[in-house]
Amino acid sequence: MGRIVNEIFIPQWKIDGKRRPLPPLYEAVKNYGEKNVYFDKPQYVDKGFCLYCGKKITNKRRKSYCSDKCSIVFQNTTVWHRGRGAYGTNILYRDNFTCQDCDEFHALQNEYGVYLPVSDGQLDIHHIIPVSEGGGDEPKNLITLCRECHKKRHKK
Ligand SMILES: [Zn+2]
Ligand SMILES: [Zn+2]
Questions:
Q1: Proximal ligand: closest to the CA of 95
Q2: Which residues, 6+ apart, have CB-to-CB distance to 30 below 8 Å?
Q3: Model confidence at 10, in pLDDT bands (50, 70, 90)?
């Protein structure tokens, strides 16, 4: 989304004055290499227990979830970042949903008290060298911070 001015495409984030979004995952892979961009999704439930409700899986044919219902809810909660947000999500995986300044853990906790590999909404991805000073989107320049610590970094 954006607007065309004098035959030049102006992206929406420039019009709104918002932060520039991270590139989509395929572009990050192309620019920085697959192994620098992909990080394992953290898992907060032991093997043999349902990833969503945390109960022991009794059905031998099931591996990750106790039921179809848990599987669907888990997918719906965690697998929506296929597009633009996916690269940022990988950075959150790398940093284990933990603020790299104050060490606070910010994975979403569901109604069963189980943590899911998704942000609770209090995390930002920060450019260590700001974009305005030539900082890029490479994984080394990105860091997970909580809202409070993010504000503090920008005050400095
Ligand atoms: Zn379950
Ligand atoms: Zn923090």
A1: 2
A2: none
A3: confident
Query: What is the DSSP annotation of 7-67?
Result: TEEEEHHHHHTPPPPPPPHHHHHHHH-HHHH--PPP--S-TTB-TTT-PBP--TT-SS-SS
C-alpha 126: how far from chain center: 12
What one-letter code names the amino acid at 154?
H
Domain 21-44+84-155 has CATH 1.10.30: yes
Closest CA to 128 of 91, 85, 90, 84: 91
Identify whether the C-beta of residue 106 lies closer than 8 Å to the C-beta of residue 119: yes
Q: pLDDT per residue over 79-91, tens digit each?
A: 765 555 689 999 9
Determine the Cα–Cα distance for residues 29 and 143; give it in Å rounded to an integer: 18
- The rounded Å distance from CA 142 to ligand 2 centre is 15
Q: Is there a contact between 147 and 101 (Cβ–Cβ < 8 Å)? A: no
Note the pLDDT tens digit of each residue in 94-103.
999 999 999 9
Q: Which ligand is nearest to the CA of 100?
A: 2
